[in-house]
Amino acid sequence: MTADMKDRIQAFLEAGPYAVVGASIDQSKYGNMVLRCYQQHGKEVYPINARAAEVEGLKAYPDLASVPTRLRAISIITPPKVTEQVVREAAAVGVRYVWMQPGAESDEAVKIAEELGLEVISGGPCLLVVAGFHGGH
Description:
About 35% of the residues lie in helices and about 15% in strands. By secondary structure, it is an alpha/beta fold.
């Protein structure tokens, strides 16, 4: 992992609130595992799932604009074409950091995010791999 990637990951993990776009009610899916990872580390996190009322005991929201607080960072676990729309929505609601989990990224989504001034983590490890969440932060 490059030093730049490590710096981006550290900045992402420093503070929330977070959202998981593509949060799943299926515990075997990454969209659920990533959400639970935030919960296990005591982070403020909001599941984004248009078809579920709640995920892992948290109220789910149909989109980023519906979340009642300003989000700082989001994890994206969606198909690449959906990710492209998600980054536009993220920029519109003031999100600063976007982590495209493996499989969610596309060159176009990264380009859109960077053009919109978002800090992007893409093509790197999954949040679950680096989720030490730096204890003291």
